[in-house]
Amino acid sequence: MYLSIKETADLLSMTESHIESLILQKRIRAIHDGQQYLINKEQFNTHFEQLEKVKKLIEEINNEPIPEDIDIKDED
């Protein structure tokens, strides 16, 4: 499935000008049909998979209990 620059910007939560810049830098693969750039949506699957892995890792870290420090002394 091919997306326009606007649709890609919405998908990636970026501005359209930033997407255009990434296309011109060849960091996003796109084809030009004579009027507009068309971007294959499948090239972002790996990005979204890695994003999900990072979110799960952060959630695991946040849910891990903080170990008690034995060196803390109660001064009361």
Automatic annotation (TrEMBL):
GO molecular function: DNA binding
Segments forming domain Helix-turn-helix: 2-50
InterPro entries: HTH_17, SinI_DNA-bd
Entry-linked Pfam families: HTH_17
Record-given protein name: YoeD protein
Organism: Schinkia azotoformans LMG 9581
Lineage: Bacteria, Bacillati, Bacillota, Bacilli, Bacillales
